[in-house]
Amino acid sequence: MRRLFIYFSVLSFFVVQPNASAAASFDTLARQAYMIDLTTGAVLLEKDAHSKMPPASMSKLMTAYLLFERLKNGSISMEDTLPISSNASRKGGSKMFLRDGERVKVEDLIRGIVIQSGNDACIAIAEGLAGSEEAFAEMMNAKAKEIGLENSNFTNATGWPDPEHYMTAADLVKLAQRLFEDFPEYYHFYSERQFSFNKITQRNRNPTLGVIEGADGMKTGYTRASGYGLTASAERDERRLIMVVNGLDSSQARAAEAERLMNWGFGFFKIHELIQAGETVETAELWLGQKRTVPLVLKEDLRVTLPKSSKAKLKVVVRYEGPVKAPVYKGEKLGTLVVSAPGIETIERQLFVAETVERLGPAGRVIETLGALVSGAGR
User: Is the same domain home to 301 and 344?
Assistant: First the structure.
């Protein structure tokens, strides 16, 4: 096993990865918290992020996801109207004040869910897409499994309190990420500040909008059991952070903690470009090839999110079994790049052959084999 050790002596930092010790070093008043740098996937903050919790209205992100999916595949349109049942219009909690028997455009219902957190709008969508809220909850659970939410269960479209309706902070971040990545054409709804319907104007409940630089989503939540929660997203300098906090004591505490944590995430960390896609990381030795070496490369850029003030040295190791017998072909997996530093989880990336190298002809193989034997005999 060959190992090439590369030290980036000009850099001094820790790499932050899921479950790394650095991800738990900054405290928060929230009962549950999770923050990622979407650009690199690094976990910046984690507190009880994989435990079940009542998501309250933050679970409306899944209701929106299923609606956006229908819009994208063309089975429903923004201009379509859906009937409002008495079940929807009578629902308590936050409302967009729908009236029994009226028909409402899908686009208005989206704003009712996203901006006004309307329970009535969620039920109207659930009944319109699945026939009943119970059937829609089954769709929510199927989609949760499909997109990899590991510890979530939905019993309704609104986040109404139910012991069997739960999510985790980590699952909420993943759901928010999928919403942003899968439906960029609809994401703008989350940054709209207010919406008027039936002559009633309500402001977006997200406390980060207009307060935190770059904030543009996503959803608040509150029940007695959950406390005050928020799924938030913001972008600065080509970095996007997604954060969930839950279990705060008041809307004021939620707003203050969201601002503090987001500013910390952007201010304390920085993205470093370590290796570019296609850049030669190592040259692997070949045996019986028309060339004696072949470059090994990454297929994607290697970027890591790092605390600005870290002092540990980063170590990069290339591992492959060599010399490698020719032929080798462009794009073939050949070796592993391992990035590590004290106290952090190791990052591993596959290395690939950069160019095809054919095997020597019969005469060349004989000459190289004899040369190896002579060289070996002289040692």
Answer: yes
Tell me the pLDDT tens digit for each residue of 155-211.
999 999 999 999 999 999 999 999 999 999 999 999 999 999 999 999 999 999 999
Q: Do residues 175 and 311 both lie within one domain?
A: no
Tell me, yes or no, whether 238 lies in a domain.
no
Q: Of 151, 192, 189, 144, which is closest to residue 169 (Cα–Cα)?
A: 151
Look up tokens 């909420």; give the residue.
172
Number of domains in the chain: 2
d(CA 104, CA 107): 8
**Which residues, in sequence order, are bridge partners of residue 289?**
359
Catalytic residue among 59, 85, 94, 117: 117
The residue with tokens 């952070």 is: 241
The answer to whether residue 269 is domain-embedded is: no
With a CB cutoff of 8 Å and minimum separation 6, the contacts of 27 are: 47
Tell how far CA 23 is from the center of its chain.
Answer: 16
Task: Tell me, yes or no, whether 92 and 214 share the same domain.
Answer: yes
308 is an active site residue: no
For residue 189, give both structure tokens. 């709804």
Q: Is 57 a catalytic residue?
A: yes
Nearest to 243 by CA among 208, 193, 213, 268: 208
CA 79 from chain center: how many Å? Answer: 31
* CATH for 371: 2.60.410.10
Single out the residue of 303, 309, 292, 302 nearest to residue 360, CA to CA.
Answer: 292
- The verdict on 106 and 189 lying in the same domain is yes
* Active-site residue, from 47, 57, 85, 191: 57
Show the domain range for 373: 2-13+274-378
pTM: 0.83
| Matching residue, tokens 């928020």 | 230
Q: What is the DSSP letter of 210?
A: T
Instruction: Give the number of other Cβ atoms within 10 Å of residue 305's Cβ.
Output: 24
| Same-domain pairing of 198 and 63 | yes
The last residue of one of the domains, among 151, 186, 219, is: 219
Instruction: Give CA 272 to chain center in angstroms.
Output: 19
Residue 75 is a catalytic residue: no
| Amino acid occupying residue 158 | T
Of the listed 60, 91, 174, 219, which one is catalytic?
60
| DSSP codes of every residue in 287-325 | ESBSSSEEEEE-SS-EEEEEETT--PPPEEEEEE-SSEE
pLDDT digits (tens, 9 = 90+) for 309-340: 665 667 889 998 879 999 999 999 999 999 87
